[in-house]
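Progress note, sequence design subtask.
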């Protein structure tokens, strides 16, 4: 059994096409088919059922697939570990981040420092909701995702590493709001004092705000649902409603006010979601740089 054969098994299982699997592996189709046939002969089992219309993985193939993936991942990790010992940082580093994590961690500044230190690492970044970024880590499409700790358990083979202390949420109200002269308010009196400007559904901030109101047994009116936290703050400053946001977004508000919440447990903890079965040296280096940059700041 050869590593190349295991790569062919994984590629064919994912693509269901000899043509596409050969393209992914950078070989001609006949070579891929021949090497897979040799593996099946060695194992004494058919790994794929081939028809004129489709390729279907067999029960034996299903048994081999997770083992093949694990072996290939271990080989990649071993190579990266050896390269790290030699002082080499190369390859690709896929990073996902929510807008809250990017803001709180100064991601652009940290990535700039990382690039200057390891220019041979190709940095690839994507942004989006936390649940999408975490799913991409679980699927192996990203090396790490920077997002808030979720209310739900981590997916299989993914773990969360906190990078910052919990960030308390505050309620931003305009200067003419009835509670504008207060320093603190509870969710019940906030709900009675006007409509809310909310973050979009399925984001961790929105889920935590919804859960906090549910625990209090309070219904609230939602006037706006926006996709950017700074925009939520601007709407609140303009007197269009109340915005509950992480405290670091509520600065330089003019005559508007950021009220501390009586429900102090309403907060976000930002960290890194990584593969539980081992991160690459490049991933660990970035995580350490993110942590150290915040402690120095």
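Output:
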């Amino acid at each position: 059994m050869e590593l190349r054969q295991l790569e062919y098994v994984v590629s064919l299982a994912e693509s269901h096409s000899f043509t596409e699997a050969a393209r992914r592996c950078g070989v001609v189709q006949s070579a891929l088919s021949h090497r897979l046939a040799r593996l099946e002969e060695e194992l004494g089992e058919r790994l794929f059922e081939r028809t004129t219309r489709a390729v279907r993985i067999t029960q034996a193939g299903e048994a081999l697939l997770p083992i093949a993936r694990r072996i290939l991942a271990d080989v990649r990790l071993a190579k990266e570990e050896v390269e790290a010992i030699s002082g080499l940082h190369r390859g690709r580093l896929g990073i996902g981040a929510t807008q809250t994590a990017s803001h709180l961690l100064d991601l652009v500044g940290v990535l700039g420092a990382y690039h200057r230190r390891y220019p041979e690492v190709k940095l690839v970044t994507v942004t989006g909701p936390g649940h999408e970024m975490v799913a991409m880590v679980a699927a192996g499409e990203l090396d790490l995702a920077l997002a808030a700790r979720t209310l739900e358990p981590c997916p299989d083979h993914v773990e969360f590493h906190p990078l910052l202390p919990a960030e308390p949420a505050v309620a931003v109200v305009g200067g003419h709001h009835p509670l504008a002269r207060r320093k603190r308010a509870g969710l019940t009196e906030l709900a009675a004092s006007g409509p809310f400007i909310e973050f979009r559904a399925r984001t961790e901030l929105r889920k935590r705000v919804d859960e906090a109101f549910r625990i209090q047994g309070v219904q609230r009116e939602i006037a706006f649902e926006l996709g950017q936290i700074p925009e939520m703050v601007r709407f609140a400053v303009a007197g269009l409603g109340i915005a509950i946001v992480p405290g670091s977004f509520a600065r330089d508000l003019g005559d508007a006010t950021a009220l501390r919440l009586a429900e102090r447990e309403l907060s976000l903890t930002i960290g890194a979601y990584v593969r539980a079965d081992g991160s690459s040296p490049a991933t660990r280096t970035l995580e350490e740089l993110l942590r150290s940059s915040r402690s120095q700041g």
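The first helix runs from residue 3 to 15. Work on this subtask will continue into the next period as scheduled.
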